[in-house]
Design a protein that fits this description.
By secondary structure, the chain is of the alpha+beta class. The chain contains 15 helices and 9 strands. A hairpin with a 4-residue loop joins strand 5 and strand 6. Helix 8 runs antiparallel to helix 10. It is elongated, with a radius of gyration of 29 Å.
């Protein structure tokens, strides 16, 4: 069982720490520069905590002090009240479009169930029923997103001594296969024949988008945020420093994602063809109204329709990025260069995702064995 975090509680100038020990509440405080530690004999639960705060601590304060100033009555928080405070704090901690998405998930999938409830009354069994209800309609990885938001809200409540434990921590998270995997790890690249078929069937901006993504390994959100000024055709480099989601631009996924991507000939050809559609000013890829895309979701939808039309196995748009990396690595490209183009923090991330595409024929492997044996040297026997 997870140990309850110590609770800080100020009463009339005395700073008490309420700790759980052997299933009892203990007090730890200083008075006249002397440390006092004692058991309250109250059970380490919600009822016992109320008795510690409302009875035992006031009695201690009255015995030690000439004048006692009780604290204001503690606020009872509803889930919705605390969630509002939580999202306000998040404004300076995560990207704007991510915050908007999380708030939307909360409003649609959490608030209708628990919004009006006092946050300290939530029970694990209720949360498990909510999770199971969602699993009837949504995939496990989608429910995991909703759960993660609620878990973070409850964890913040624990940190602020509003609840003692996070009740959602006692509910097993939904899983898909064995582990939930994000897009970076779910690698299903296209073959060269599949790509050729897809590109032949594509038209308009889609054919250029597919060719460009395949030849740069850039993320979809990064591509729709690109403007012509971000491409230096003379120096053969693409400046990626932003992403686009929900009609707004924000920072790239990570600090390492802000990068310069080398402009390969295939990517340059795609851009030259795209100029015929958009001209050479503003955004490189625009929608049918000549405006920047609200998000890359519509491109993903069109991509799925295209795969179905071609008879190619359905895979998400993100796999064009994986195709860029896997094709290059399997053909012997410098993995450090590939990692830099992808915007990974370090090569270990690239290796983790794409190691299985590093292949060698026996001739290369034999030469490497001989070289490594020479480096290792011979030990006298």
């Amino acid at each position: 069982m997870a140990k309850i975090k110590p609770i800080k509680y100020h009463y009339s100038g005395i700073k008490f720490t309420i700790k759980e020990r052997h299933n009892k509440w203990w007090l730890d405080f200083y008075f006249n520069k002397k440390r006092v530690r004692r058991s309250t004999e109250c059970h380490a639960d919600k009822t016992g905590l109320a008795e510690v705060k409302k009875v035992i601590i006031p009695e201690i304060a009255m015995a030690l002090l000439d004048h006692v100033t009780p604290p204001e009555t503690e606020k009872e928080w509803t889930v919705n009240e605390f969630a509002t405070e939580y999202f306000e704090l998040q404004k300076n901690q995560i990207r704007e479009h991510t915050l908007e998405r999380n708030i939307a998930h909360y409003n649609n999938h959490i608030k209708p169930y628990f919004g009006s409830r006092l946050i300290d009354t939530l029970k694990p069994i209720e949360l498990e029923k909510w999770q199971n209800t969602k699993l009837k309609t949504y995939k496990p990885q989608t429910v995991q997103k909703y759960r993660s938001i609620l878990f973070s809200i409850l964890e913040k409540a624990v940190d602020n001594d509003i609840i003692m434990k996070n009740p959602l921590s006692k509910v097993t998270a939904p899983t898909q296969l064995k582990n939930f995997r994000n897009q970076e790890e779910n690698v299903e690249p296209f073959t060269e024949d599949e790509l050729s078929t897809i590109i032949k069937e594509a038209s308009g901006y889609m054919v250029n988008f597919i060719r460009f993504m395949y030849a740069t390994g850039a993320r979809p959100g990064e591509i729709i945020a690109l403007q012509w000024d971000d491409v230096d055709f003379e120096r053969k480099i693409i400046k990626i420093y932003k992403t686009r989601m929900r009609d707004k631009e924000g920072d790239t996924k990570t600090l390492a994602s802000t990068r310069g991507v080398d402009l390969l000939p295939q990517a340059e050809e795609a851009l030259n063809d795209q100029k015929l559609i958009t001209g050479e000013e503003g955004y490189i890829f625009v929608n049918s109204s000549k405006n920047p895309f609200y998000s890359h979701d519509i491109i993903g939808v069109n991509f799925q329709k295209l795969l179905s039309k071609c008879g190619v196995q359905a895979r998400v748009l993100y796999n064009l990025r994986h195709t860029f990396a896997s094709q290059l690595i399997s053909k012997g490209a410098d993995i450090v260069w590939v990692s830099k183009m992808l915007g990974h923090k370090d090569v270990s991330i690239t290796l983790k995702v794409y190691t299985k595409f590093i292949e060698e024929d026996d001739e290369k492997r034999f030469k490497k064995i001989e070289k490594m044996g020479t480096i290792l040297g011979t030990v006298a026997t």
